[in-house]
Design goal:
four-stranded antiparallel beta sheet
């Protein structure tokens, strides 16, 4: 019913990261037909991928790197033709989801970026042969169970755009909250509220990347142990919170 060129075009769209549903609607072909072609059609000839080169936008990359280290993963396409970059964004923060999509698009212009709804979160996803070279921290196992270190070219980007990197880390594994306490003033107990930033990550290496960047920016921080383990990094001093507010701010 469909010629080979039509089938190849449909499969090419799927390989670029488009969902079966979107390809089905665009081409007027049933999803079951496209799914069957994935198993039966001769694979397209593989070409050696050109060198990925540097990110197209360093500022966007610094932010996306922070998101990836917190809530990102890279997985291979089942047919071995490329890789999916996925960033989990909580549905409670639509602004974060939008910024994540924009950053992916700026880092690799011309490739598709789409979303997949999950329970309580949205996976911002993009398909490319080059994601592992742009995020060499990719590897088997959980991030906190293996060494995480930046390549020299990544550190150069972070040094040039440190606040974007910090913002990405906070938007993935951090938050801005309001704490409160009480004290006696003139015999009357009064309540005082104060903001602070928390960053929580099990990886010693990722926490060190965060705190090391804060040190360079002049933002004071402390560890807050959880069950005896310093998973939480707190920024609570007024001047440092003001610095974070000016460059990071709460999620939205």
């Amino acid at each position: 019913m469909y010629d080979v060129s039509t089938r190849k075009r449909a499969l090419a769209l799927v390989a670029q990261g488009h969902s079966l549903n979107s390809v089905s609607k665009e081409m007027g072909i049933s999803r079951s037909a496209i799914r069957s072609w994935q198993d039966r059609l001769e694979p397209l000839p593989r070409m050696a991928p050109p060198d990925a080169g540097p990110p197209a936008d360093d500022r966007a990359y610094a932010y996306l790197l922070g998101l990836y280290l917190g809530d990102g993963c890279i997985s291979a396409h089942p047919r071995g033709t490329g890789f999916y970059l996925r960033i989990a964004c909580a549905d409670a923060w639509p602004g974060l989801l939008r910024q994540c999509r924009e950053a992916m698009t700026l880092v690799r212009p011309g490739i598709g970026v789409y979303t997949v709804q999950k329970d309580g979160c949205t996976m911002v996803t993009s398909y490319s042969r080059h994601w592992p070279s742009l995020f060499p921290q990719h590897g088997p196992g959980k991030k906190h169970e293996r060494r995480i270190a930046l390549e020299p070219w990544q550190q150069d980007i972070v040094d040039a755009h440190p606040w974007e990197f910090v913002r990405g880390l906070i938007h993935s594994d951090g938050c801005r909250i309001t704490n409160w306490t009480t004290r006696l003033v003139g015999g009357v107990r009064k309540r005082y509220e104060y903001p602070r930033y928390f960053f929580t990550n099990k990886s010693d290496d990722i926490r060190a990347l965060y705190t090391g960047t804060l040190d360079k920016l002049g933002a004071e921080w402390t560890y807050c142990a959880r069950n005896g383990t310093p998973f939480n990094v707190s920024v609570a001093r007024r001047a440092s919170v003001a610095l974070m507010d000016a460059h990071v701010g709460p999620k939205h």
